[in-house]
Amino acid sequence: MPQTRALTTPIGRRILPYAMLSPAVIVTLVIVFLPMLQAMWMSLHDYVLFRPKSFDFVGLDNFTKALADPVFWISLRHTVLWIALTVPAQMLLGLITALLLNQQFPWRGLARALVIIPWALPSVVIALMWVWIYDSNFGVLNDFLLRLNLISHSIPWLADPDTALYAIVLTLTWQGFPFFAVMILAGMQAIPSSYYEAAAIDGASSMRQFWHITLPGISGVLLTATLLRVIWVANSIDVIFVMTGGGPGYTTYTLPLYAFIKARTGLDYGYGSALAVCFTILLLGFVILYLRRAGKNIG
User: Fold this and answer.
1) Total-model pTM
2) 211 alpha carbon, distance to own chain's centre
3) What are the residue ranges of helices labelled H in 102-210?
4) pLDDT tens string 85-129
5) Could you tell me which residues come within 8 angstroms of residue 30 by beta carbon, excluding any fewer than 6 positions away?
């Protein structure tokens, strides 16, 4: 009882929100911000594991080394291409799926539940499944295309430098489109049906209803979902690592994967941390520009 009375006082009411948020803030600080600060500190050192007299302070040498590293620029180019292809493809496929799931048809509830499966499966399972699909000897994709006479011989999708990155883009598109579908479908459910009824009475076609009612109604959802997917796709390394390990050569290298391989394989935690910090700064700059642009569009 005394504790309850304390929470009803003016001071207690001011303290209560901070007390309720403090566990989440503490966990975030421990799990996110402390490792981030540690990575920034390590990026300023020449830290190679198991090397004698390691962890010498080198300032910005690791960053200048990255700018002169051709693999850094290859990975950066692949990262931009990776995001530019995957996120729009996920959004388009998710939008089409949401439009279909918003219609009235039998077993609609079951369809809405099944569409989430690619998003719910672990990334490693999805990567291994698509490795089997792409296999040049007994993969389903080559067999299907050969039966349709679309190709004359089996294609090593993940071993060919011209197709490896795009094959992984298709894999992540399949994995991530349910997120857009669910978000967009939720946004559609919030649009009053009276808008569509009034538009139909005025003679508006389905396309005009979509363009003038549905699209403005889900614009906020699209902006938020796109930003989240850009961040998640940009940081995604598990699918690429399991499917190709970055190969063949540097064909499927992205900046997060390059930083991971440098730290994991080369045990060069100083340079790997510098690569991760460079990527974080670039991604943060994109997020700030995106939020400013989105705020102007919404305003």
Assistant:
1) 0.86
2) 27
3) 108-114, 117-120, 123-134, 140-147, 164-189, 193-201, 206-209
4) 999 999 999 999 999 998 888 888 888 889 999 998 999 999 999
5) none
Tell me the H-state helices in 29-69: 34-42, 61-67
Instruction: Give the residue among 168, 157, 165 at the shortest CA–CA distance from 77.
Output: 165
Question: Hey, which residues does 48 pair with through a beta bridge?
Answer: 268
Q: Shortest CA distance to 213 belongs to which of 200, 226, 224, 223?
A: 200
> Which phi and psi angles does 226 have, rounded to 5°?
-65, -45
CA 148 – CA 99 distance, rounded (Å)? 30
Q: Do 223 and 197 form a contact (C-beta atoms < 8 A)?
A: no
What residues form DSSP beta bridges with 45? 57
- Domains of the chain with bracketed CATH: 61-298 (1.10.3720.10)
Contact 186, 101 (CB under 8 A): no
d(CA 252, CA 79): 9
